[in-house]
Structure formats: structure tokens, C-alpha cells
Design a protein that fits this description.
single chain; 127 residues; alpha/beta; 2,3-Dihydroxybiphenyl 1,2-Dioxygenase, domain 1; 4-stranded mixed sheet; 2 helices
Length: 127
Amino acid sequence: MEYVNPIVWFEIYVNDMERATKFYETVLDVKLESIPSPTDDPMEMRSFPGDMEKHGCNGALVKMEGFDVGKNGTIIYFASKDCTTEENRIEKAGGKVIRPKMAIGEHGFITLFTDTEGNMIGLHSMD
């Protein structure tokens, strides 16, 4: 099977759901929604806005016993019209800018930051 966008879901593990939700809602200017756990495992989930019926990627913040946060090697990049917009909200929301907006050649620009839980996250824009 060939995929146009191979990533279909992501999870950002958190220790403090309220703090992490406030951070992402502030930085990305979105509203996260509580969603039920898809398994019998006790977990709390808050979904980013998206259309699960469309091709592409959506995901959620997840709080689940036994999953460490902030020590992963995977970076998720959120789409942006201009990385600077969200970058300017990061530290005010409790995160830390690790790499301010930088050019990545013909592929646009990225910003790297850590969230309130210590996870490394990226922003990507063409401008």
C-alpha cells in the first residue's frame, strides 16, 4: 500500500494533563477535546482538532501509567503559516524554545521547542 502521508496518528505523553492542555491550546491557538480511552487501560486523552475521516494525521495528549514523558527520540512537527507566530507564545505558555525559527532550504522553516512535560516538539512553515 502506498501512503501520501504515512503518519496516521500521534500521541504526546504527559504527566500533567491540565498543564499540557493549557500549553498546547495557548501555543497553537486551538481547543483540545476529551476523548474516551480506546482500550480497557486507564488513560486520559485530549484530542487535537482534526477530521478523522480525512487522510492525514491527527493525535492526542495521553496520560497513562507506566509511560515516561520527555525522554523520546521522536519529534512531531505541527503545521504553521509562520513558525514565528506560535514561537512567540511558547515561553509565555511555560515551554522553552530550543531552536528559534531556522531555514531548512527549499523545505521551508522549523522551530524546535520543549513543552511543559519536557517533550521536544517542532513547528514547520513554508514562510
